[in-house]
Amino acid sequence: MELYKQYLLDDGVKDNHIIHIRFESLEYEDIKTYKELNQYILERINADEINYILLDEVQYVENWEHAVNSLHLMKIQISLLPVQTHTSFSIMFNCL
């Protein structure tokens, strides 16, 4: 995920258009449910512009897919790119 974030930055994407959440970090330990995740993302999305959301270790969030579905229902265009390793599952998606 760090490499992809750097790729986006190098490609001219503004840092405030990248929402990168690493759930193994204590910084995000308060995001435990899909409702908290959804709220966190909505508070940071830049309306009418492409946003990139990188979720590392998303399996720590209970029912995280409900947050993604909710964003989709709000007519936010989402493209998912699963990144799976032997110990974790992460997703990247962009929103417009």
How would you describe this structure to a colleague?
- The protein is built from three helices and four strands.
- 31% of the residues lie in helices and 26% in strands.
- It has helices at 2-10, 34-44, 64-73; strands at 18-22, 51-56, 78-84, 89-95.
- It is globular, with a radius of gyration of 13 Å.
- With 96 residues, the chain is of the alpha+beta class.
- The mean pLDDT is 82.
- Helix 2 (34-44) crosses helix 3 (64-73).
Topology:
Elements: H1 2-10, E1 18-22, H2 34-44, E2 51-56, H3 64-73, E3 78-84, E4 89-95
Parallel strand pairs: 1-2
Antiparallel strand pairs: 2-4, 3-4
Task: Output the keywords.
4-stranded mixed β-sheet, 96 residues, alpha+beta
The DSSP helix count reads 3
First-to-last CA distance? 20 Å
| Proportion of residues in extended strands | 25-35%
Instruction: Assign a percent range to the helix content.
Output: 25-40%
The average pLDDT is 82
> SS-based structural class?
alpha+beta
The strand line-up of the biggest sheet is 1-2-4-3
Largest sheet composition: 4 strands, mixed
Task: Give the overall form.
Answer: globular
Low-confidence stretches: none
Kindly state the number of beta strands. 4
Rg (CA only): 13 Å
